[in-house]
Design goal:
heterodimer; A: about 450 residues; D-Maltodextrin-Binding Protein, domain 2; 2 domains; 4-stranded mixed sheet; 16 helices; 4 strands; about 75% helix; elongated; B: about 300 residues; alpha/beta; Rossmann fold; 6-stranded mixed sheet; 4-stranded antiparallel sheet; 9 helices
Chain lengths: ~450, ~300
């Protein structure tokens, strides 16, 4: 045990002291915060109010348009033709023309702008007009104010249920994002740190220091020390990334003057394609009632974050351990970088496969494929992470973890047997037949 | 008292028997030459002694007890293929290797200070190994091998890569280590250093031990009972009991001949006989060199 500790201490310190580690550790959060903050920064700056001139020939929409942060409505009485001509010099960004017969021909609504009108502006105006026309038509149909009020309530309670629908929607959206994110990080981390283990083993073999070391310690201790050491490097890096990303984001947002309150951030998130599940038209609608940012936050809150984090750590470790043992075996078997490829590929197949399957699993997180792939130790770290945000029965998680652990023990045993022979074997180009023989060599 | 004994060691690889019933005894306080051509099985034997691999059959005794993992700290090993972590500082690396051998960090530090002063290499402490020359790295590795003051030191080709000055330095260190009570197993192809350093030898050829014992006894065993004489005159009338093997003229008019005496004859008889025939300038026994013995025993020229 003491020797394993010595080994992992060295493996850890050597890697942590490396320049590349420091650079990676500090650069990544910077990039991430940048990706996070710059859109926010530009979004903040981008909000210069647009002036909209409203030519209401019908005279029905005097109070329909309410000014917002983005849009300022100015009713004008200029005839359309003149307004069109002078539009370029008028200082308005958008012009809305409501023809006289709007009630009979609702499609006659026209929006003019120098450049293309953004979808948001367009649908915002359309919705406002639409609602007003509805109101007027209802009134014309003889429904009195009170009934109208009650329909208003109905309408708004409709949108509320709609927004609840949106909430449900964005909750599964949050689960999707969370599932992908967890799976992706595990996928990347296994490659990143597994490769480090492999390179470490190869370095020792090629440097020939391995013979000195294993005259002092058992090959298994050396392998275990290395794997655990690198695992700790990985954990350290992740911790630092999280802390630094948070720190840098806060600092940068202070400098840039971006409000990165959680709401703001969520709002930015919701604007990014793929992140937002709510359809665009709904944004303007719901914005009046409830900020979508808070919705996303609420949606995230519906997930069992504690469970996800704990499971992530366990599957991260399990997946890393199982694969890094294999990577160590590969590193011990080869003499040079060029031989690596033939062994790397078959090892990484289940990893890549499970990453590809993740998108199908995410559509049907309780399906048969999802179940079995989250049980097989080589695919479970990724597939289970995809499933967990959608809710997985506890027994399935426990079984999968037990299998993962068993899988690790088996893999480590296998890897250790190849490793102890491989590290001392030079000049032989290893084949699979050769490796199988190594398994049965006596220690 | 033997510090190490192997009994009937067999090591079998898939197609190839690397060691076949090898028994050797290494007396305490000796420098023991482990000789043999390439591929004879020396490295396999050394790895078994270092517990890097285990024998398929046979036993190894260290200090009278079956070899056990806790003997590791009492053995120091310098493999033929040297290697250090290239990107690690010299000092850290030596501390690490010493700790793997069971020293505490403090002990290791104290001992390292002595060695660094002795070799006058204090400035190397904070250097990366890759910034040192090959010879310097060898020196570092030698220090790593002996730092924990092992009872048994196994050196595989310790002089390769050293210039003559540093080779001498290492040679003196080896002798001093023996002086202090360590036993050294010395595996090499260089017969002149065997000649110079070893007390005992064992020769392994084709997975079997073909020869072992004190160097003197082995030389005795390989004696050919031939004598070399330089003289003026002619040995034509020499007593036929002494067989004249060869004669060749030297540049200054003298002749040199090799003469074998029968096993039961005394050297003095030959001397007397010679004096009767020729004017002797010099006379001496042909003692086989280790090189001769190696070639004779193995039937091939030692190669590096």
């Amino acid at each position: 045990m003491k020797t394993i500790f010595l080994i992992l201490k060295r493996e850890y310190l050597v890697r942590v002291k490396k320049k590349s580690f420091l650079i990676m550790t500090f650069l990544t959060p910077l990039l991430v915060s940048g990706m996070w903050l710059l859109p926010a920064y530009f979004a903040m700056r981008g909000i210069d109010q647009k002036k909209v001139e409203v030519i209401d020939e019908s005279g029905l929409f005097g109070k329909t348009f309410k000014n917002t942060k983005e849009l300022k409505f100015v009713p004008v009485n200029t005839p359309v033709d003149r307004a069109k001509q002078s539009f370029a010099k008028s200082g308005y960004d958008v012009m809305v023309h409501i023809p006289k017969n709007i009630l009979d021909a609702p499609k006659g609504l026209k929006i003019y702008a120098e450049k293309n009108v953004s979808l948001e502006v367009k649908s915002g105006i359309e919705n406002a007009v639409e609602r007003e026309i509805e109101n007027i038509k209802l009134l014309q149909a003889g429904i009195d104010r009170q009934v109208l009020e009650s329909t208003h309530v109905n309408v708004s309670s409709d949108t509320f249920s709609l927004s609840e629908e949106g909430e449900k929607d964005s909750s599964s959206g949050a689960a999707t994002v969370m599932g992908y994110l967890g799976a992706f990080i595990i996928y990347i981390a296994i490659f990143l740190y597994g490769a480090q283990v492999m390179r470490g083993v190869m370095e020792e073999k090629m440097n020939r220091i391995v013979e000195v070391i294993i005259s002092s310690v058992k090959p298994f201790q050396l392998m275990a020390g290395k794997i655990i050491g690198v695992a700790l490097v990985g954990l350290t890096q992740f911790m630092l990334w999280i802390l630094l990303t948070f720190g840098i984001s806060t600092a940068l947002s202070g400098i840039l003057g971006v409000d990165t309150g959680p709401q703001q951030r969520a709002q930015i998130m919701s604007r990014q394609p793929g992140m937002a599940q709510a359809p665009t038209e709904e944004i303007t609608k719901t914005e009046r009632k409830e900020n979508p940012a808070t919705q996303v936050l609420k949606a995230v809150n519906t997930l069992n974050i504690t469970q996800i984090v704990i499971c992530f750590l366990i599957y991260f470790m399990g997946g890393y351990l199982i694969y890094s043992a294999l990577f160590a075996a590969v590193g011990s078997a080869v003499d040079s970088e060029t031989d690596v490829q033939q062994f790397m590929f078959p090892i990484t197949i289940p990893l890549i496969l499970s990453f590809i399957m993740a998108q199908f699993v995410i559509r049907e997180p309780d399906g048969t494929v999802a179940f079995w792939m989250s049980m097989i130790p080589f695919t479970s770290p990724i597939i289970m992470m995809v499933r967990i945000p959608f809710g997985v029965p506890t027994w399935e998680i426990l079984l999968s973890m037990a299998l993962l652990f068993g899988g690790f023990v088996g893999t480590a045993w296998l890897a250790a047997r190849i490793y102890r022979v491989g590290i001392l074997m030079y000049g032989k180009k290893p084949s699979y037949r050769e490796l199988t023989k190594w398994l049965f060599y006596k220690a | 008292m033997n510090i190490l004994e192997t009994r009937d060691i067999v090591k079998q690889y898939a197609q190839h028997r690397a060691l076949d019933g090898v028994s050797i005894s290494i007396p305490r306080g000796t420098i023991f030459g482990l000789l043999g051509p390439n591929g004879a099985g020396k490295t396999s034997l050394i790895r078994i002694i270092n517990q890097i691999t285990g024998p398929d059959e046979g036993q190894v005794f260290f200090d009278g007890k079956p070899l056990h993992p806790n003997h590791i700290g009492r053995i120091g090993y310098l493999p033929e293929e040297r290697g250090l972590y290239k990107k690690m500082k010299v000092g850290e690396q030596l501390l690490y290797l010493a700790q793997l051998k069971g020293l505490s960090e403090r002990q290791a530090m104290d001992k390292l200070k002595i060695w660094f002063t002795k070799f006058d290499i204090k400035t190397w402490w904070t250097k990366n190994v890759e910034d040192l020359s090959k010879g310097m790295q060898q020196k570092i590795q030698f220090v790593a091998t002996v730092l924990h003051e092992p009872d048994l030191i196994i050196l595989d080709e310790p002089f390769s890569g050293f210039d003559p000055i540093n080779a001498n330095l290492i040679k003196d260190e080896i002798l001093e280590l023996r002086q202090k009570g360590s036993t050294v197993i010395f595996s090499t192809h260089r017969m002149e250093s065997v000649e110079e350093l070893c007390d005992h030898i064992a020769l392994i050829n084709r997975s079997r031990k073909v020869l072992d014992g004190p160097k003197k006894a082995i030389k005795e065993q390989f004696k050919t009972h031939t004598y070399r004489v330089e003289y003026q005159g002619s040995l034509d009338g020499l007593n036929p009991a002494f067989s004249l093997l060869s004669t060749k003229p030297l540049e200054d008019g003298f002749l040199r001949s090799d003469v074998r005496i029968p096993p039961d004859a005394a050297v003095n008889d030959l001397v007397r006989e010679l004096i009767g025939h020729v004017a002797v300038r010099s006379f001496g026994e042909n003692i086989p060199s280790m090189n001769d013995i190696f070639i004779q025993a193995v039937g091939e020229v030692p190669t590096t």
